[in-house]
Design brief:
Layout: E1 2-6, H1 12-22, E2 27-34, H2 43-46, E3 53-57, H3 63-70, H4 73-78, E4 82-85, H5 105-119, E5 125-131, E6 143-145, H6 159-172, E7 181-187, E8 189-192, E9 196-198, E10 210-213, E11 219-224, H7 225-237, E12 242-245, E13 251-253, H8 254-261, E14 265-268, H9 270-282, H10 292-296, E15 299-301, H11 304-310, E16 316-322, E17 328-334
Parallel strand pairs: 1-2, 1-4, 2-3, 4-5, 5-7, 6-15, 7-12, 8-11, 10-14
Antiparallel strand pairs: 8-9, 11-13, 16-17
Length: 335
């Protein structure tokens, strides 16, 4: 039986994972962490004399609040044996804690959670959601990436991609830890119903237009938010450590994905995109594009390791369906 802690449980992927684990008979209790108040969807989970779900607000990027929480009576009594790192879905921000100054918020959270797990007397398993955008993309659309593929360690990579790479390397370094079992799930673009897209550096979480590189339309690997929850559940109950690519069945061109989600894109020459990106960086602004390579070259993921070691197979498709008013909308459904 598992006693599980989940970070960013108040965000969409966290809520999806909480729901999946709550109905798992082999999960005894869930300790959910979030920035804001508990979502209303948790009301039925928090009710009853002895609820299986408890919730706490904490700034995951700050050392003192995290340390106080993990050394509190609440956490000690919860007897947590498994932690799940669900990253914030938005763009990284600079934390204010001087102990992690200079790191992205996402990287700070990863380091602090890992530190608490390593120091804990009860936590023996850590499942971390990472990004498949950490891979270096060679030219072409036929890139089939496996877990040993090269990471993009270019010093000019955007801060968004750099934060994912930093988190990846933090968890990767503990995969062979004898005391803490670590499973790192590398995810491509995560798609939910209603046009919502997560963990994609190009699409982002903000509405509006996006730019594309003129003459290119890279292939995008996808995975349903429901399958992310299923893969996380499989990793929670696994007994092996490792890095695992997790993806769904569909792949679509970037222009199609942008159209599906309502984030229409405009094509610009690569020279102009590079100039705009350099200007933005010189002005201290957010990068215009995560990298030109990601607007030009596509990839799919080799998921055989997750299938063989975690027993994960995608069970949901991503596509378009007609809403009640007849309009097309993005939908995820069982295969």
């Amino acid at each position: 039986m598992k006693h599980v802690l989940v970070t960013h449980a108040d965000e969409p992927l966290g809520r999806r994972i909480i729901k999946r684990l709550f109905y798992d008979a082999n999960v005894t209790s869930i300790f959910a962490l979030g920035d804001g108040p508990a979502p209303h969807t948790f009301d039925r989970f928090l009710s009853g004399a002895t609820p299986r779900l408890s919730y706490a607000r904490v700034d995951l990027a700050k050392h003192r609040p995290m340390n106080d929480l993990f050394h509190s009576t609440r956490v000690r009594d919860a007897e947590i044996d498994t932690a799940i790192f669900v990253p914030r879905h938005g763009a990284p921000a600079s934390p204010s804690d001087p102990l992690v100054a200079g790191l992205s918020e996402r990287t700070a959270e990863a380091r602090l959670l890992l530190q608490q797990c390593l120091e804990s007397q009860t936590i023996r398993n850590l499942v971390a959601l990472g990004s498949a955008f950490v891979y270096r993309l060679p030219p072409g659309n036929a890139n089939r990436l496996h877990e040993d593929s090269e990471l993009d360690l270019d010093p000019d990579v955007s801060p968004e991609i750099r934060s994912w790479i930093d988190c990846d390397m933090i968890f990767h370094g503990e995969v062979h830890n004898d005391r803490l079992r670590v499973a790192l799930l590398r995810l491509p673009t995560v798609v939910a119903s209603g046009g919502y897209v997560y963990l994609n550096p190009f699409m982002g979480e903000r509405a509006g237009w996006r730019v594309r590189s003129l003459g290119y339309d890279p292939i995008c690997a996808l995975v349903s938010d429901k399958d992310v929850a299923r893969a996380t559940q499989a990793a929670v109950h696994s007994t092996v450590s490792g890095i695992y690519n997790v993806a769904g069945i569909e792949v679509v061109p970037l222009s199609v994905l942008a159209g599906w989600t309502g984030r229409h894109s405009v094509s610009l020459p690569g020279v102009l995109l590079s100039a705009l990106d350099r200007a933005a960086r010189l002005l201290g602004r957010e990068a215009v594009v995560p990298s030109l390579e990601r607007l030009r070259y596509g990839f799919t993921l080799d998921t055989r390791r997750a299938e063989q070691e975690l027993g994960f197979h995608p069970a949901h498709r991503v596509g378009l369906a007609r809403a009640g008013d007849g309009t097309l909308r993005l939908e995820t459904a069982g295969i």
